[in-house]
Amino acid sequence: MSEALPVATIRTQVTVPLRFPDGYATTARVFSFHGLVDGREHLAFGLGDWSAGVDRAAAGGPPPLVRPHSECLTGDVFGSQRCDCGPQLREAVERIAAAGGLLLYLRQEGRGIGLYAKLDAYALQDAGLDTYEANLALGRGADERNYTVAAQMLAALGAERVALLSNNPDKADQLRRLGIEVAERVPTGLHLSDANAGYLAAKVDRAAHTIDLPFVR
């Protein structure tokens, strides 16, 4: 049964050219919103012919490709290799631009615990805890992210039937409970390095992420 979803509306929209360090460039239609339940400044990026994808899905055709991407300052901006967030963001923008769809940039640093707490968790990981154990040791949830705002943004943009670009089953489960039809879940690529192998393994072991790691069977 779907949960009642508070209504959000589009606040403003503007076209922004994007360029990544490897030279890939595209253009996005960036949306801000009124009425998001947590009051944070989340953004939606319309990439490629996103509006046609939304219209096709509403008419019963293939759904637009959508990724809810949680903010990661260390990975997205500074290229930290302790996680796979930066490469996932780069991959998602190109794939969504090619297919036509939406990237939701959600201000949920550190799986919802915030930037400073995430750095505290890094210190605990250096002492031997995995990424989920570290959050719990700080007295926080293993994953505090709530995707109500993502569902609000999708509904405001008319994208209530989507193909979800994510390895995380919880994203799909939460969106479905909030009334978004997840027609399929599309995995991201594998962005494995020596520095993030333990992090990715913890995602598989503790949160059932669909990541095909060569050393986890």
UniProtKB/TrEMBL annotation:
Reaction(s) the record says it catalyses: GTP + 4 H2O = 2,5-diamino-6-hydroxy-4-(5-phosphoribosylamino)-pyrimidine + formate + 2 phosphate + 3 H(+)
Top enzyme class: hydrolase
InterPro entries, alphabetized: GTP_cyclohydro_II (IPR032677), RibA (IPR000926), RibA-like_sf (IPR036144)
Function: Catalyzes the conversion of GTP to 2,5-diamino-6-ribosylamino-4(3H)-pyrimidinone 5'-phosphate (DARP), formate and pyrophosphate.
Any one biological process term the GO annotation gives: riboflavin biosynthetic process
Residues that hold GTP according to the record: 67-71, 88, 109-111, 131, 166, 171
Keyword field: GTP-binding, Hydrolase, Metal-binding, Nucleotide-binding, Riboflavin biosynthesis, Zinc
Protein name: GTP cyclohydrolase-2
Gene3D superfamilies for this protein: GTP cyclohydrolase II (3.40.50.10990)
Keyword flag Hydrolase: yes
Active site: 143 (proton acceptor), 145 (nucleophile)
Cofactor binding, per record: Binds 1 zinc ion per subunit.
Entry superkingdom: Bacteria
